[in-house]
Amino acid sequence: xxxxxxxxxxxxxxxxxxxxxxxxxxxxxxxxxxxxxxxxxxxxxxxxxxxxxxxxxxxxxxxxxxxxxxxxxxxxxxxxxxxxxxxxxxxxxxxxxxxxxxxxxxxxxxxxxxxxxxxxxxxxxxxxxxxxxxxxxxxxxxxxxxxxxxxxxxxxxxxxxxxxxxxxxxxxxxxxxxxxxxxxxxxxxxxxxxxxxxxxxxxxxxxxxxxxxxxxxxxxxxxxxxxxxxxxxxxxxxxxxxxxxxxxxxxxxxxxxxxxxxxxxxxxxxxxxxxxxxxxxxxxxxxxxxxxxxxxxx
Length: 298
What we know:
Helix content: 10-25%
Largest sheet: 6 strands, parallel
Order of helices and strands: EEHEHEHHHEEEEEHEHEEHHE
Mean pLDDT: 79
Distance between the termini: 6 Å
Number of helices: 9
Shape: globular
Structural class: alpha/beta
């Protein structure tokens, strides 16, 4: 056992989007924001069409508020029996989130025909900064490695959504999604280097989409931040039983680099706490975890 320190706040869920907007600003562009969502939230919708649309709304909100990672909490034990769904809810959630985050010109190459993606046409497009159109200029573009012959040591060819293909510096398997930093334009084709998908944000301060992580429970979601050893240094819980954020001065929040906002599923965030065997709390004690708790046992 070891101790891990977090700052927690507990707010009414109806004001969560207002809070997230308060945490977003041009001066915060290099800070990382994460969103935790239980998979069971999909079960609020009664049909596959509505469930797909709901996931699309979550993806759109994440993009608008520049969320860097969406953590899906697998809180659906025997979910197929409980919901009478013929598919895995977590897989459905993840596939649709991935599909929307991917630029349109890459989807055909990256996504085969899947039952989970049957109703993707119902989702609103994200129109995120990395969803570049063919006539838009940018030093970075998302691409996918294509099956085109290349000489040994000459890297790979990629489709980056332009009229001409791009030759990148690394040899990669066909179908691999990459982030490309473009070099000077060659009259015959484009050239570029493969870089981390985090680089456009770090260098330009430009939002570059979200990643997706599946967590087995609330403790896993909070303690296994993949981008930093210190974890999330600001965690906000949302619940209809929490206190209103009105009157709180966000300038008084502790300085943070990695902020997480956690939403509840069908049983609320209290259900997440109660269902997590690693947390020594029950439903009635959920407020202790999220109000001003600064210490939890892991």
